[in-house]
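Methods — Computational structure assignment.
A single polypeptide chain was analysed. Its primary sequence is given first, followed by the predicted tertiary structure written as structure tokens.
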Amino acid sequence: MSKPSFVPYLKAIFAVVVWAAAFIATKLALQEAAPSTVVWLRFGLGVLVLGVTVFARKQFAWPRGREWGYFALLGFIGITFHQWLQSNGLVTAQATSTAWIISTTPIFIALLGWLFLRERLGWLSYAGIFLAVLGVLLVISKGDWQAVFTGKFATSGDILILLSAPNWAVFSILSRQGLQKQPAARLIFWVMLLGWLLSSPIFFLDRGFTDILSLTWKGWSCIGILGVLGAGLAYTAWFDALQELPAAQVGGFLYLEPLVTMLTAAVVLGEQINLTSVLGGGIILLGVWLVNRPRKEKPPTPQTPASG
């Protein structure tokens, strides 16, 4: 029996909602544990879920030769370093501003493609880049343009989150080749496993085991959301959707992520929804759309949210 036509759309929506909630779950988990502990537990669970998925689909295979180095590099950039930036950034950055900033990742992917892959950018793309920068400044400065000009417009967490966007763009560019050669679940499994192993020394040198023993049910619930749902099932659902739907259609759902984060953060964390944040976020999304809009000469690249 064939699957109902709406199932791939439900999978994409599920992934986006989970990734949006991950910012809130991370902030709550950070109230009880160090960033290194949250990252280690999250991706330890994610590796288990993805491992089960790969074996269940009979896609398991050991890396060969240079693939070990390739997967380790992706693991360090996309898991170890990226999650260090985001988890430490969310200590002081708001979940809402984090989601808006992360949504600029396609801008950096386009810039890297222009710099290193000789991918062309039209004048609308340049306009989009300008708008995205303007929107980010508006969001993190909360509309205080005087603070922007004096350099006192962001928390240290905002800066780390902002750095994570181009870092994920590098990861996305480097992972293109691997995604063309083998199943996405297998690649993500090895990348996540090696990235998790590379993050282990930080966990052991920090207060990792002490944090684990002191976690409450709320802390474990947040870790479970981040690991089982965010790092495991959401990735599986997202790439399943990509295999069944055009990349442009699936990528369009990513525009919902910061909106879902903003609404959820207001309810769960009490973060205020103000006109400045909504306006800045809208400008960012417009800029991203202008840069990442479908063009006849070049099909859109499948995007993955940098939260996940």
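Note: The mean pLDDT is 85.
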